[in-house]
Amino acid sequence: PEPIHAAVQELELSSTVGLLKVTHVVTMNVRVARSDGTFNVRDEIEEDGSAPMYVALKLDLYGNDASNHVEQFLKYCQQGFVENEDDDAPMPSYGRSNFIQLNQSDGLLIGGSIPGLQLTTQFQQTTPVLEFYQRRLLPAPLWIETNKKESGSINNKLSPLLHCHNRKGLLTHRDLDPMPTFGITTRSSNQELDATHTVFGQIQMDQDAKQFLNCAQDLPTYSM
C-alpha cells in the first residue's frame, strides 16, 4: 500500500484528566491514498471504487507522566520552519512524515517516518546523531523516562500504565530508539509490547479516528 501522509496542523493545551493526565493535544491531518497511490480529487463517484481519505486525528499526550517522550515528540511537531532567510533547509517535521507499516504480528501501525532522516554512526558521541538529507546533523536524545523527582512533586515513580498496551489507539515508542517513529496500537491487547515500548499518549477515538484505524487494518498485505 501507498504511505499514509501526515501533517501536524495545530498544537494546543488541554485540561483533560484521566488515569494519565493529558497535557497537550496535537491535531494531525492525515490523508490516505487510493490503491493507485494518487491523492487528487476526481469525480464524486470513483470508477475504481476507491477515494482518498482525509481525517483529522487528535492526539492526547501525557506530558506529566511521559514528559521526555512528549518533549521529543513535540519537537517534531513544532519544527519544519526555515530558521533564517539565508537557510533553505527546513528541519525534520512530522508534517512531512509517513505511516509506513502495519506490523501483522503485533498490530502496531508505524508512523512518523520522515524522508531523508537517518541515524548516522560517523561520530563517536554518547548522544545519538541524526542526519537530515546530508545537510543537517541533529542530536537525538533517547526517549527515556526516569524516576527523577521533580521540584515540588511528591510522586517520583513512573506510572505502570506507561508499559500497558491494553487498548486500541495508544501512542507508543520503542525503547532506546533515537528515531522519531512512533506506533499506534490497533488491537485491544498488545502485551508483547509492554517490555519493549513506552506509552506516551492516545488518539481521541472519534469518528475520524475509527475510520482511520479501520482503513489501516484493511490495507492489503503481500508476501514474497
TrEMBL record:
<protein>
    <recommendedName>
        <fullName>PPIase cyclophilin-type domain-containing protein</fullName>
    </recommendedName>
</protein>
<dbReference type="GO" id="GO:0003755">
    <property type="term" value="F:peptidyl-prolyl cis-trans isomerase activity"/>
</dbReference>
<dbReference type="InterPro" id="IPR029000">
    <property type="entry name" value="Cyclophilin-like_dom_sf"/>
</dbReference>
<dbReference type="InterPro" id="IPR002130">
    <property type="entry name" value="Cyclophilin-type_PPIase_dom"/>
</dbReference>
<dbReference type="Pfam" id="PF00160">
    <property type="entry name" value="Pro_isomerase"/>
</dbReference>
<feature type="domain" description="PPIase cyclophilin-type">
    <location>
        <begin position="57"/>
        <end position="205"/>
    </location>
</feature>
